[in-house]
Amino acid sequence: MTSRLVLKCHLGDVAFQRHRGWWADLLFGAILSTMAMFVLYGVYVGNDWLIVENWHWQTMAFSTWLGVLWGSILSCIQVAIAEEVVFRGYLLSGLKRAWGQWVALAVMSVVFAAIHLPVSGAEKTPVPLFTLALVGPGLLLGWAYLRTGSLWLAIGIHFTWNLVQGELLNLPGSTTNPHIFGAQTRLEGPTWLVGTEYGIEVGVLSVVVLGIVLAGIWLWTRSRQLVGIED
């Protein structure tokens, strides 16, 4: 109902278009951000900026580990779909109709960053720097949406961005995240470089992941006739 009142169309028309290859967009996005996170993991571990203390599947009962894994997957799916629908499906689409895609992309990315300020760990980074750092992922996910005209690619990227970074490789070095099913780690590198317990996004090296994913999006969509909504 909201999408019909504001966007004058169904949400499915601007967010979940079942275009040919939609499933490939979803899968490629998931593989792309997974690969980028493993590259960053190699950089962290290779420079002793991230210490892996153990792997949870080695220390948990198998049934317990499966429960944590399932909870992690469900949690990350929920976050990825909800945030993509709200910020790209609704906000970016609506602003794009009013102001054009580039202004809309910039405004949406700032709002996306600001809404994460109350998240645990965000307080360890000054508000202006945190907001600037989170604008990058917002721009990336918005661009993925604009390049394809649907949320499938962005959801795939967003889902494994969270799952692999936080729950599998534990790149933030979290000791309190109940959804970790992979590595128990601790960060040893400088926070300005590697990030904080909030995540890699607030560290300079997050540009490695952003660069890989941006390049992947461009290569994946470079010969595609874009199907995004028109201004």
Could you explain how this protein is built, in words?
With 231 residues, the chain is mostly helical. It has one domain (29-221). It is 65% helix and 5% strand. It is built from ten helices and two strands. Strands 1-2 form a two-stranded antiparallel sheet. Helix 3 (22-46) packs antiparallel against helix 10 (206-221), helix 5 (62-99) packs across helix 6 (101-114) and helix 6 (101-114) packs across helix 7 (127-148). The radius of gyration is 18 Å and the shape is globular. The two termini are 21 Å apart. 41% of the residues are buried. Mean pLDDT is 90; it is low at 1-6 and 227-231.
| Unreliably modeled segments | 1-6, 227-231
Portion of residues in beta strands equals under 5%
Structure summary, number of beta strands: 2
- Gyration radius (Cα, Å) is 18 Å
Strand order of the largest sheet: 1-2
Structural class: mainly alpha
* Helix-strand pattern: HHHEHHHHHEHH
Number of domains: 1
Give average pLDDT, whole number.
Answer: 90
Helix content: 55-70%
Secondary structure tally, helices:
10
User: How would a crystallographer describe the biggest sheet?
Assistant: 2 strands, antiparallel
